[in-house]
Amino acid sequence: MIAPVFTDELVRVVADEMSRGVEIAVDRWMADVEEALDDHRLTTLGRMYAIRRVVDRYKHLTGKSALRVPKAG
User: What is the separation, in whole angstroms, between the first and last Cα of the chain?
Assistant: First the structure.
């Protein structure tokens, strides 16, 4: 039997690594969106298209055809 302390520590380490991976991914997507919004060479419509490309790239990488927000409650 695995000692509970070892198991608890392993779970904590894995959870921390997963959390860090999510944070890195979200930071990257937000940086891409911010870059599109701050690109003054683009028109407003151009900025919207740039953001659309970020969303489309996310969908492609995740294999999703639509993004859904879970209902609260």
Answer: 39
Task: Say if CB 67 and CB 56 are below 8 A apart.
Answer: no
Judge whether 29 and 54 are in contact, CB under 8 Å. Answer: yes
- Which token pair is 24? 């890195």
Contact 39, 45 (CB under 8 A): no
pLDDT tens readout for residues 15-38: 999 999 999 999 999 999 999 999
d(C-alpha 36, C-alpha 30), whole Å: 10
Q: Give every CB contact of residue 67 below 8 A, 6+ residues apart in sequence.
A: 55, 59
pTM of the predicted structure, to 2 decimals: 0.72
